[in-house]
Amino acid sequence: MNDYEYPLTMTGGHTRQQILAKMHERLSDGRLNHCLRVEETSRVLAKRFNVNVDEAGLTGLLHDYAKEIPVPEYQQVIVREGYGQDLLQYGRGVWHGMVGTWFLQQDLGISDPNVIRAINRHTTGHPDMTDLDMITFVADFIEPDRTLPGEIAARKAAETSLTKATMIELQNTLTYLVDRGALIHPLTFSTFNAFTKRVQD
Known about the structure:
With 201 residues, this protein is mostly helical. It is built from eleven helices and no strands. The chain is globular.
């Protein structure tokens, strides 16, 4: 395991080991190991595209912090904290980004706005994604254990372009959801349209 450390101002005053201990309480071993791979992939992408490596690494580490929180707990938070009734029709696949940051702030005091924003956006995308947002979005999709054709194509694209890698992921996500007859969050549609324009330009 890598022994990175992050600025305490970015981590709510917690060391990486303290964060990992809390993650171990929240996550299965498989999910935690995925987070560690995304952390590493995010750091690599940040170096490649001249983005703050600590912000990218911490965001990658924490992106799935709330992935396995029970559905009833999510539903209570969505209602109590005023996220809007519409959000209840989606599941943890959306919630662990958009609402997961609430748990990060409550459990660990994570408040770095760039980290919070990137985690918030990593499940739905956002038309105005920054480079850090795209790194989190893409790293989650291309970490080394991802071996499907779309994941491989995005990994190749990410050698030169975060925008193109993000577009490949969006296309794969939409295809996956449509094939399963699943609800698609409006932000994902608007992100796809925005990135279609970015790629064309």
